[in-house]
Write a structure and sequence with these properties.
This protein is an alpha/beta fold. It has helices at about 1-25, 40-60, 75-80, 95-100, 100-105, 140-150, 165-175, 185-195, 210-215, 260-275, 275-285, 295-315; strands spanning about 30-35, 60-65, 90-95, 115-125, 125-130, 155, 180-185, 200-205, 220, 245-255, 290. Strands 2-1-3-10-4-11 form a 6-stranded mixed beta sheet, with helices on both faces. A 5-stranded mixed beta sheet has the order 7-6-8-5-9.
Amino acid sequence: MKAIGLALAVLALAAAFTGDADAQQYPTRPVKILVTIPPGGAPDIAARLLAQRLTETMGGSFFVENRPGANGNVAADAVAKGEPDGYTLILAADSLITINPHVYPSLPYDALKDLLPVSSVASNQFFLAVNPGLPVKTVPELIEYARKANPPIAYASGGNGSQHQLGIEMLKQRAGINMLHVPYRGGSPAGTATVAGETMVVLAGASSAGLLRGGQLRGLATTGTKRSPLFPDLPPIADYYPGYDLTIWLGLFAPPATPEPIVTKLRTEVQKVLHEADFAQKLNVTGALEPLILSPADFSALIKRDYDKYGKLVRDVGVKVQ
């Protein structure tokens, strides 16, 4: 028995040395970062900036592959079932991990177990906006108008189960008001519909900044916990409803069982990049994003907190996506 135990210990030690050696050499071939949307959105921008910088700092080749489909589930499943060697990663938005499991009847992967967190990457927020024809200029005025409106005013979203919808539903719960949900195929069409007057309210993303600046949409507030550098005059919704927070985050994930030395090396290099002022500026200018630098424990806690938060909200609202 002692001989068997000694042999197992030697094997474990050898595996550890092998893992450390692999991590020291990593990457020895191109590393693919999957993105769940077509080119141009915030996850794609962040992934391309990160891939370019990691290529420069790690001495290997990192590239982005856009693989949209099923609200991100196609790319997520590919990574969840991918080879755990550090050469297939995913730059995922929080909704993939914290919302999709609650709104889809079944998924081919477990979002909390089959996607290994490597590092937080970036964050941004929405802007609560209205059609300029609506006679409101502040959040309290919107709430009062909505409370009296009969029939209820309509709000646009990027689809059933989207953060656009859940963010407005959070506000409805807090304020005790009713608004009619009108889903569209993405945030951009939702913003366009509100400009056209098909709907009156929308949570606009950074891609709608031009509409806000041009006056086609009237911004009332931000959905995060602080003001946005893009529109510093807009207060957070939390100023009126403490605890309200719809901060969107992006993170880098790997297949489960990816060796810890490789995960640690990746995380260390990513966080070095996030601390660079030039990288932070590029994130902000091109995608209205801010670096999100969290310890592994804090990132895991954020994932769990948002998973629980959105799960309760989805159950309250009764959202399901087929």
